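[INFO] parsing input record for DNA polymerase IV
[DEBUG] input buffer:
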Amino acid sequence: MDAFYASVEQRDFPEYRGKPLVVGGSPEGRGGVVATASYEARKFGIRSAMPSKTALRLCPEVLFVRPRFDAYKAASRHIREIFRRYTDVIEPLSLDEAYLDVTEDKQGIGSAIDIAKRIKQAISEELQLTASAGISVNKFVAKIASDLQKPDGLTFIGPSKVEAFMEKLPVEQFFGVGKVTAAKMNALGFHTGADLKKLSEEAMIHHFGKPGRFYYQIVRGIDHREVQSHRETKSVSVEDTYQQDIAVVEEMLVALDRLTAKLASRLQSTQLKGRTVTVKFKFHDFALMTRSHTVPVLIADKGDIFQVVEQLVAKADLHDRKVRLLGVGISNFETSETERHEKASDVQLKLFDVPPSDAMPPSMRGYGP
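[DEBUG] output buffer:
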């Protein structure tokens, strides 16, 4: 979807249309970050994850609105219903993005391009929103293609064009290559896919670690990952960004208590229990810190989780540090149906003192709301 949150706001409130609009953040620039910027705001250089203060400096006339996640979720559900008219093999990435495998399309259309056009038309007519589609032979290339002609774009990269396309692509546009990795590639003299293609697989791994094996494949247009319509849940988490930084530990605990209640509600709806609790802190200078602890038994109850959260906060060095974002998550879920249906009354909790830990389980890295 194109600038999804902002587009929903402009659709629902005509007074926002044609104006630079930011969802999230603070109109006073005192805290918070941009969740989504409208295309009018992007012309000024405003981007997602940008501090409110920076957005205001770039465009003093920018409008800030609070997120309405119920509205975004409702639109997302409708969009998924449109997808299901054409295929059942759908892998959602977020509320506004998904992979679709249309190898066997339900309507027998026989053309991925035509299916994409019909989906885009349905979204436009039924939701008054625009979407951009990328079409290719694998997930990696399709993902990159979907970003090439936004907004309201449609890009097809056929089998015979994939390798040449990857050779011309700047490394900064490789999906999965962040700013740090891109800067390292540039420093080594690698600026395009063609540059990377000169490296052997061993050299790729030497320079970039395990991801080097993936880069070696995708620079040649090779990606064997299937579209997974039922992905296993690795973690469940909630977080919140605050308009004003929190500097008092007691206030942090109040905020974390509310987040833990939301987390427990989600766990109840999914019937999941986990062992590893993680607390996430983002400070006013955007430094990120996490603390994790694994308990010996499965937990899902709010009180049990918060008991661990309190001990993690007590062990963290939070003195004189202002927090702008807090998050709570749980991972390390049960692996058997017996554990899944285990009743809480049968569990004898024995939560030990939580040691300080900077390590965060891989499944929790970068978790979001």
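[INFO] DSSP finds 14 helices and eleven strands in the chain.
[INFO] shutting down worker
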